[in-house]
Amino acid sequence: MLTSVSAIRHVPSLPMTNDPTAVEMVGVNKWYGTFHVLKNIDLTIQRGEKLVICGPSGSGKSTMIRCINRLEEHQQGRIVVDGIELTGDLKKINEIRRDVGMVFQHFNLFPHLTVLENLTLAPIWVRKMRRKEAEQVAMHYLDRVKIPDQAHKCPGQLSGGQQQRVAIARSLCMSPKIMLFDEPTSALDPEMVKEVLDTMVSLAEEGMTMLCVSHEMGFARQVADRVVFMDQGEIVEINTPAEFFSSPHHERSKLFLAQIL
Ligand code: ADP
Ligand code: MG
After folding, report:
1. pLDDT band, residue 72 (cuts 50/70/90)
2. How many Å lie between the centroid of ligand 2 and the Cα of residue 104?
């Protein structure tokens, strides 16, 4: 049973194709200089699927999800997002970035802009929405993440949990088809973790396609269709959360779980 405190009613933009695949990675390799950071990554994510990615620090989790919206470039293999292959074509990259929302560990809000301005910036400049409409959409999502009263403050005046909910609302204002989360709760004080996880749970319940790098095992058990375990640049195991946490298949998964549980 999913329990959520906040309920975001997400209205995803219509998929451009009927293809049930949201993201496909085939034989993806990436190097930072001579360091082989992603090794033969094969991963297919269906629309509406929720994946939790875990693994030791430095295993390539951030790099992998950053490749999906081309914040990092892969050197070998194919990445297809919403039917568009990621190549050097800037037009296509921009198209994908419009449809793929990303939430980072450290929020990455513009500190000198108000919450409302943070939320309306991309809809106005990228989606060419009128300011008034963008503000209505922004208030709708601020309401959903339960902080409409913070709209006119700057991010620095908000708690970490509130800032992260602003970051989630900011992504939602662009009606993303896919949401990427990179350890969204790991920089938060413990008492703020739940409010952000609740927001993510309700997003999951709305049917959003989600890839979450997270070590929040309760969250993984609650929402993940599959858990992806990475180690040293490889996908070592893909499993259901129930099986991954109770009887992981791989020795390296067992070792990792023994350290974090
Ligand atoms: P994770 O998110 O699992 O902790 P990362 O994807 O951040 O792992 O990093 C994987 C490895 O790549 C680490 O060894 C890290 O130091 C290295 N790395 C990450 N970003 C860069 C970069 N821009 N240049 C060189 N090495 C990097
Ligand atoms: Mg990381």
Report:
1. very high
2. 9
* Residue 215 neighbours by CB under 8 Å, 6+ apart: 54, 183, 186, 260
Residue 4 counted as domain residue: no
- Which atom of ligand 1 is the closest one to the Cα of 57? 4
Query: Of all protein residues, whose CA lies closest to atom 22 belonging to ligand 1?
Result: 32
Domains in the chain, number = 1
State the CB neighbour count (10 A cutoff) for residue 187: 14
| Residues in contact with ligand 1 (CB, 6 Å cut-off) | 32, 35, 37, 55, 57-63
Give me the domain span that covers residue 112.
Answer: 21-259
- Residue 196, amino acid: V
Name the closest-CA residue to atom 25, ligand 1: 32
Question: 159-184 pLDDT, tens per residue?
Answer: 999 999 999 999 999 999 999 999 99
| Nearest ligand to the C-alpha atom of residue 31 | 1
Ligand 2 centre to CA of 72 (Å) is 13
Q: Which ligand lies nearest to the CA atom of residue 59 in the structure?
A: 1
Ligand 1 atom at minimum distance from 72 CA? 23
Report the distance separating Cα 108 and Cα 167, nearest Å: 8
Dihedral sign (CA 192, 138, 49, 42): negative
Predicted complex: ipTM over 0.90: yes
* CATH for 135: 3.40.50.300
Ion ligand 2, residue ranges at CB < 5 A: 62
Ligand with smallest separation from the Cα of 56: 1
**What confidence score (pLDDT) does residue 12 get?**
52
In a domain, residue 156? The reply is: yes
